[in-house]
Amino acid sequence: MSLEITFLGTGSAFPSPVRGASALVLRREGHCWLFDCGEGTQTQLMRSHLRAARISKIFITHLHGDHFFGLPGLLCTLSLQSSPDAGRAPLDIYGPLGLRSFLRRSLELSHSQLLFPYAVHELVPTPDQCPPGEFKDFSDWDRDAELPQGPPGRVVHLDPGEDSYLLEEDEELVVRAFRLFHRVPSFGFVLEEKPRPGKLNVQKLKDLG
After folding, report:
1. Is 66 assigned a catalytic role?
2. Homologous superfamily of the 3-207 domain (CATH)
3. pLDDT in tens, 79-101
4. Of these residues, 36, 66, 142, 207, which one is catalytic?
5. Where are the strands (E) in 19-131, listed by range?
């Protein structure tokens, strides 16, 4: 398994002509995972050697604009470059509670219809992840809203006694989120490679002494 990281933006607060807002891509076996999507991320992708169409997962660390204001535009561009495919797997998007509502409202207000499915998996923060005056509970924002049926996705809580959220697992990797402490609820993401035991020909070793 090979992993390659490309930094698309490392700027803080706002992009500059030579430095994009926060975004990086992890490329793994032909698939791209995008971590944060600040303003101008899709332009930075066009300047890189990466193909935006390869993005299969997006992870948003927190809901400050310089980390996710580029997301609706990127999704719309990906849609313009797509063709309808009923069998296509959803684009998985992970981020703090409130991200699903933001995307639904952004796409609805801009009359944007995506040609591919996506699923928003929201991480429920704990109140101690930011100063008390900054903590907002977005869990019931859309309860009474007359919006079209939103995208599917999980709501992921921190299990009692655990210090991380289990997001993805396959035969090679485990992906977890862990709490960060910032002015708003924030999350870091860690990829843990599973052990890969080698293959030994025991009999040949014995024959060779």
Report:
1. yes
2. Ribonuclease Z/Hydroxyacylglutathione hydrolase-like (3.60.15.10)
3. 998 887 767 889 999 999 999 99
4. 66
5. 23-28, 31-35, 55-59, 91-96, 118-123
